[in-house]
Amino acid sequence: MTRDSRKVSHRETDWWNEEFPVNQECMYLNHAAVAPWPDRSRKAVIEFANENAGLGASHYPEWIPTENRLRENLGLLIDAPVDSIALVKNTSEALSFVAYGLNWKSGDVVVISDQEFPSNRIVWESLSNKGVTVKTVSVDGDDPEAELIAAIQQSPRLVSISAVQYGTGIAMDLRRIGEACHAHGVLFCVDAIQAVGTGPFSVTDTHADFAMADGHKWLLGPEGLGFFYVRPDIMEQLALSEFGWHMVEHLGDYSRKDWQPATTARRFECGSPNMLAAFAFAASTDLLLEVGLDVIQEKIASNIAYLRSGLEDIGADILTPAHAEGRSGIITFRFSNIDSEKLYRQLMGIGVVCASRGGGIRFAPHFHTTADVLDDALNAVARLTNRS
What we know:
The chain is an alpha/beta fold and 388 residues long. It is 35% helix and 13% strand. Strands 2-8-7-6-5-3-4 form a seven-stranded mixed beta sheet, with helices on both faces. The protein has a four-stranded antiparallel beta sheet with strand order 9-10-13-12, with helices on one face. Helix 7 (174-184) links the parallel strand 5 and strand 6. Helix 3 (60-78) crosses helix 8 (275-291), helix 4 runs parallel beside helix 5 (119-125) and helix 9 (293-313) runs parallel beside helix 11 (371-384). The protein starts with 21 loop residues before the first helix and ends with a helix. Residues 1-11 have low confidence and may be disordered.
C-alpha cells in the first residue's frame, strides 16, 4: 500500500526537520502523552549541566533571564500577561491550587465532562467532605457544549473542562463556554494541556479564570514543569496552601522579617524553581513561537486529515468526531472484530508509538511529523489488520 498520490504538502523542506531526529528513529504519534524534545532543548540541558558541573551556581544571576524568557513565551502562547502566570510542577498541582484555594460552601457544584482525564476529576471529587457536588455532563454528539451550557444556566460555582478531551480528541468551544460562565457568574477553569501548543490559544478571548498545562505534551517540553494562569482580578480569591521564600513580594531580601505574598502569580511558587527544566522548556517554546501558532495549527490539521482519510480507506471506525477535525491533534480509531488493545501492543512493538485511549487507538501527530512517518504508520496498521 502506497500513499504517494496523497502526500501532504510539506515536510522535507521544512526548516525545523533537523530539530526532530525522532522522525528518523520511530513512528512517533504520541504527542498527546509525552512529546519528544526538539534538539535545541536537548542542547540547552547539556549546556546547563556542563556549566553546573564545572562552575556550580557561579553564574546563577545569568540563569534568571532564561526563566523570565520562559514566562514571556508562555504569555505569548496563551495570550496572557506575564504576571498572571506561575510556573508549577504539573497540571494536577495547578488544579489543586484552585480546588483548595477557593472558599467552598456546602451545596456548591462543580461541572465537568464525562470524558475528563482523572486529574480534572479526582481533584473536584476530593472536595466532597466540604459539601461540594461534582456534576458530570456528556460531551458526545454534534453539539458537545449543549449539556454544559444547560448546566451553566443552573449557576454552579465552577466549570472545569479540558480544552480537548484526551481520549477522543473532542475540541471544546471554549469561547462559547466561557461566555456562558461569564454571563451567569460561574468560575471557568480550563485544563489546556491538550490544546496549548497546537495553535492559537487565548485565555482572554475564552473568559478563562484559570488555565493550566504541563509542558511535556504539545509544548514539547520536559515533564515536571508547566504553567498556571490566574485572571489577575480574582487572584486574591485563592487562599494559599504552600509557603516559602520564593512566593514573597520582596524576593531575595532574606533578612526581612515581615512578608506578604507576591502581588503576581509568583505567589503560587513557594520554593526553588526547576531551573534545569526551565532551560529545556524555554528552548521548546522558543521553537513553537518561531514556527508560529497559525502554521502549527495548519500542519497538525493537515496531518490529522491525512490520517483520517488513510484510516477510513482501510476500514477503521473513527471515534474522534468530524467536528473536531482541524481543532485537535488527536485522532482515535478502532476496527470492528479486532482487539484494539492487542493491535496497540503490536503497533508499539514495531515502532509505531501511540496510545490506547478512548476505547480505541489514539494517534497524535505534531506539526513536525513527516509524511514518511504518517505513511509508515498507516501501512503498519493495514498490514496488522490484513487490509493492505
